[in-house]
Design brief:
The structure is a single chain. By secondary structure, this protein is α/β, with parallel strands linked by helices. The protein is 26% helix and 12% strand. It is built from 13 helices and 11 strands. It has helices spanning 62-65, 215-227, 231-245, 263-273, 278-291, 302-316, 323-348, 425-432, 468-480, 502-511, 529-534, 550-562, 575-580; strands at residues 355-364, 369-376, 387-391, 399-403, 414-419, 439-442, 458-464, 487-493, 515-521, 542-547, 570-572. The strands form 2 sheets. The protein has a 6-stranded antiparallel β-sheet with strand order 4-3-6-1-2-5. It has a 5-stranded parallel β-sheet with strand order 9-8-7-10-11, with helices on both faces. 55% of the residues are buried. The structure holds 1,4-dihydronicotinamide adenine dinucleotide. 1,4-dihydronicotinamide adenine dinucleotide binds at residues 88-89, 402-403, 417, 419, 464-467, 469-470, 492-494, 498, 522, 528-530, 547-549, 551-552, 555.
């Protein structure tokens, strides 16, 4: 899969135990029971453990629970799996949207899979085991008014005009001497803190110790192999089942479900497939669970998704499907959903589900790139290198990811670099329509491409196109920590004109002697950004950060590894990359 295309840094993906496949019609009093078949064959409906008997954690305030309805009431919805993809700026052409699956849309007919032969054929109900959701919740922040105040903060400072950019030869500084233990990407590494709530620090890549796959993992992977050739059909059938059986959930998804539609399923399947990689999965799913709050996802929604997941899998893996396989999936989904539910519940105690933010500055740098600065309606804690999800008033419930282009600032303003991509709904709105005074919504921060301040290793940063945004934030972060660790930035673009933020980067270079910025402009496709780092080095004592288009990340990671940087010291936003490490 391409990277970054799932919440990456997307980060994210759970382990732990805990069952919540419980009776559909008796969630409050029979948490261990089985579901009665309804509408033909169904798995047991599910109720999360550790929640209230209604399955809904009591929101601390209306601000945390009631989804707003910004913009025209189009009926559009957000995509619960959007967080899994760092699909920044990639949007569905407005003219090609599909208003949700239905039999009339050419989707597979919704014929329920064959019922089990007996109640005994059902999978055993796993024992509920609440999963810790990231430590004790921080103090609850009082709810604030949802109406943002008029803009009054200064706009984001503009960079000076720079002279024409030339790629200049450079001798890199000597490799830094490590004075502390190398930065660990261990799943148990402490999360960096940026004030409550503490964003999860989820390294984008982590090696998984080689070990024998668990029996459940073997069964799950067998299913994945079986459905691989018909993945599209599984996806269509899954959503058809979900929306036909649970029409109330339709409003949680975008009206246009074409290119976005498989994110939820993809995230679930990816997580299940890597169910053995518990620490990584836990962090990923916690991030995913928190991110789902802004969609209005509630604990009681998860059983429906689980039912339909199993329904779709059992239909398209019918050749190998049996009670043992089903039980493995039930256990996996139980774990996955429980972690997400617990994380969302814990997050609800310490952070809003979303933030409103007012555009205070809009700087069109090129014909298709804008630098947009917003002021959140209340403090927005994040770490440099992270990203957020963003919704405009013109496309309600369509969320896209953008990285913060600055380290946290004293004035609380947040800046994003947005490139309008062809037929991109959100990106075109942000570049060509947004103006100061417009109100957008922000989801929680996510991503693990953050600086490890416990080491003085050098930073080797590759930023391609608007991928330079988080790199700039990382540079500012290093500067604010007052360290003198070498930072080498390779800023790639297809043309000189595309180096829209070079002035800012050169200004930072002037300010900081430890910073080296090297613009790399494509030479007729012969030299691309990753090629440039091969001309310099050595890099074996550096931590690497890669941000840009998926192809650039792939070839950048290859080039970095070839230059001697171990995989665990290369960070980028990509959940698929994250979870496949170690396979
Ligand atoms: N806006 C944001 O906050 C962020 C955006 N991104 C991603 O960065 C990308 C930026 O897109 P554009 O500005 O259009 O970049 P672009 O397509 O113009 O490419 C930027 C640089 O990457 C190189 N590159 C592209 N494909 C490559 C490949 N296959 N192999 C090697 N090098 C390659 C190009 O040569 C160029 O130097 C988008 O995919 C976006 O999702 C990533 C992080 C943050």
């Amino acid at each position: 899969m391409d990277a970054p295309t799932t919440t990456s840094a997307d980060n994210g993906t759970s382990g732990g135990g805990g069952g919540w496949f419980t009776p559909r019609k008796q969630p409050a009093t029979n948490p261990g029971g089985e579901q009665e078949p309804a509408e033909g064959y169904r798995l047991a409906a599910m109720r999360p453990v550790g929640r209230t008997t209604t399955g809904e954690a009591t929101p601390p305030s209306a601000r945390h629970s009631a989804p707003p309805t910004p913009g025209p009431p189009t009926g559009d919805t957000s995509h619960p799996a959007d967080d899994d993809a760092t699909a920044r700026e990639r949007q569905t052409p407005p003219g090609t949207s599909t208003p949700g699956p239905s039999p009339a849309d050419g989707l597979p007919p919704i014929s329920p899979p064959a019922p089990p032969t007996s109640a005994e054929a059902r999978p055993p109900i796993p024992t509920p085991q609440p999963v810790p959701a990231g430590g004790p919740p921080a103090e609850f922040a009082p709810t604030q008014a949802r109406h943002p105040t008029p803009a009054s903060a200064p706009a984001h400072a503009q960079p000076p005009t720079a002279p024409p950019v030339e790629t200049r030869p450079h001798t890199p500084p000597p490799a830094p001497t490590r004075t502390e233990a190398p930065p660990t990407l261990s799943p148990h590494a402490p999360a960096p803190t940026a004030g409550p709530p503490t964003p999860q620090r989820v390294p984008a890549q982590r090696p998984v110790p080689a070990r024998e796959a668990s029996p459940d993992a073997v069964l799950i992977r067998r299913t994945m192999t079986e459905i691989g050739p018909v993945a599209d059909k599984v996806t269509s059938y899954f959503y058809a089942l979900l929306f036909v059986r649970h029409p109330d959930l339709r409003s949680l998804f975008p009206a246009a479900m074409d290119t976005q539609r498989d994110r939820l399923l993809k995230a679930l399947l990816t997580a299940a497939e890597h169910i053995d990689n518990t620490p990584v999965l836990v962090e990923y799913l916690q991030n995913l669970g928190r991110g789902h709050r802004k969609y209005g996802t509630r604990a009681e929604h998860y059983p429906a998704v689980g039912e339909c997941l199993i329904g779709a899998l059992s239909k398209y893996a019918a050749g190998i499907w049996n009670p043992e396989l089903e039980a493995a999936w039930v256990r996996a989904y139980t774990t996955i959903s429980q972690v997400m539910i617990d994380a969302a519940a814990a997050d609800e105690l310490r952070a809003p589900a979303w933030w409103y933010a007012e555009v205070v500055s809009h700087d069109l740098r090129t014909s298709d790139v804008a630098v947009v600065t917003v002021r959140p309606d209340q403090p927005y804690p994040f770490l440099a290198g992270q990203y957020t999800s963003l919704e405009t008033p013109w496309w309600p419930r369509i969320w896209r990811h953008y990285s913060f282009a600055s380290a946290p600032r004293p004035d609380g303003l947040l800046t994003f670099h947005v490139k309008a991509v062809p037929a991109g709904w959100v990106s075109n709105a942000l570049v060509h329509r947004a103006r100061p005074g417009d109100i957008i919504r922000l989801g929680p921060p996510g991503g693990s491409m953050t600086v490890d301040h416990t080491t003085d290793s050098g930073l080797l940063c590759l930023g391609g196109g608007t991928g330079i945004a988080p790199i700039k934030a990382l540079v500012e972060d290093v500067a604010e920590h007052g360290q003198r660790r070498p930072v080498e930035v390779f800023y790639g673009a297809r043309t000189n004109q595309d180096l829209y933020d070079i002035d800012t980067m050169l200004r930072l270079q002037q300010l900081h002697p430890w910073l080296e910025v090297r613009p790399v402009v494509d030479r007729h496709g012969l030299l691309q950004l990753p090629d440039a780092i091969r001309e310099y080095g050595p890099w074996n004592e550096y931590d690497a950060y890669v941000s840009g288009p998926p192809g650039m990340i792939r070839s950048g990671v290859d080039a970095l590894r070839n230059s001697g940087i171990p995989a665990e010291r290369i960070r980028h936003d990509s959940v698929e990359e994250l979870v496949v490490i170690g396979d």
